[in-house]
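Sat 14:20. Reprocessing the chain from the morning session after the first attempt stalled halfway. Input below, unchanged.
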Amino acid sequence: MDEPPIRREEYVRKLLDAYRHTPGTTGTVRRPDRRLAVQLHQRGVPLYVVENALLLAAARRLLRPATAPSLATVRSLAYFLPVLEEVLDLNVSPDYFQHVRRRIQRLHPDSSLPPSNQ
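Finished this time. Tokens:
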């Protein structure tokens, strides 16, 4: 799925907004986060791929057993890089990420999620 070209400023703004709204993050954007967002734009990583990575990582953090130890708050966009690389290599339908989104919303209705731009 290809996205139309997007200006760097808009890409960075949307990516950082999605990051800020991802459950488990501090909701704060730091200078290194902004730099990483610019680098992702320069690499040509589609925005929907980054949003899917944020969603997948949030799901993994939220949908853990209740008896599992608590996880620390995510303080950096860089935390999501391994999941981003994983999503880049995945060959799944976009419907999968919609399923993940619905599951999180059903089990954690108060969670704010990155926007769905698919």
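Residues 33 and 78 are 7 Å apart (CA to CA).
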